[in-house]
Amino acid sequence: NAGVIQTPRHKVTGKGQEATLWCEPISGHSAVFWYRQTIVQGLEFLTYFRNQAPIDDSGMPKERFSAQMPNQSHSTLKIQSTQPQDSAVYLCASSLDWGAYEQYFGPGTRLTVL
Amino acid sequence: GDSVTQTEGQVALSEEDFLTIHCNYSASGYPALFWYVQYPGEGPQFLFRASRDKEKGSSRGFEATYDKGTTSFHLRKASVQESDSAVYYCALGNMGYKLTFGTGTSLLVDP
Disulfide: which of A26, A29, B32, B85 matches B93 by Cβ 3.0-4.6 Å? Predict the structure, then answer.
């Protein structure tokens, strides 16, 4: 079991550029989550997919952020026109199913916007 | 909305000391409660959970008891080791999937 895989581990972008972060959940897990971690805000829920369908994106900034899950083996988080305040560690997690709260986290992607 | 409060931002102990990290929550309904641990450069790791009042969760010598009356889920360990140095997060789960995390407690154990 390779665990949740996130790529890249580090990404540096210039202000205004686009960033795409990738997540490969654990095989067989039907729930996928994205979180953002910063020193100031801590761990914040962004969005949740179940069986590839978007269920809750209440934590996503309404502009510039979007997430997709085109198949059961990967999800992407895209940030358009990145701003310095988007700098954070973006964490992907998966769990066996809805209600199975044991969420397995990947190592995260550290995004730095210059 | 749901919230989790961890009062200790940092805890410094020596090996074999007793550990307590306080966690209090505020939530509608009857949430599940969790402890996660995070090591540098890694994502949070599930430690254990409890789903009902008076249930005790435990793992690796750590334990916590769900107390609905005091809305608490304090983490305890009888004898800490240097390898326990990490950041510990209390979290609550509501709505079947969403985790709300506390601000984390950084534990440093001197050998």
Answer: B32
Minimum distance, in Å, between the CA of residue B24 and any CA atom of chain A: 17
B101/A106 Cβ within 8 A: no
**Cβ contact, residue pair A43, B44, below 8 Å:** yes
Helix (H/G/I), strand (E/B), else coil: B27: coil
- Strand B45-50 vs strand B32-38: parallel, antiparallel, or unpaired? antiparallel
Residue A105 and residue B41: Cβ atoms within 8 Å? no
Residue of chain B whose alpha carbon sits nearest to that of A91: B43
Question: Quick one: CA torsion of B4, B5, B10, B11, rounded to 10 degrees?
Answer: -100
Helix H or strand E segment including B47? strand B45-50
Beta bridge partners, A111, equal: A11, A88
CA distances from B46 to B28, B33, B35, B52 (A): 23, 11, 7, 18
Say if residues B102 and B23 touch (Cβ distance below 8 Å): yes
Model pLDDT for residues A42-99, shown as the tens digit of each residue:
999 999 999 999 999 999 998 899 999 999 999 999 999 999 999 999 999 999 887 7
Angle at A48 between CA A6 and CA A46, to 5 degrees: 75
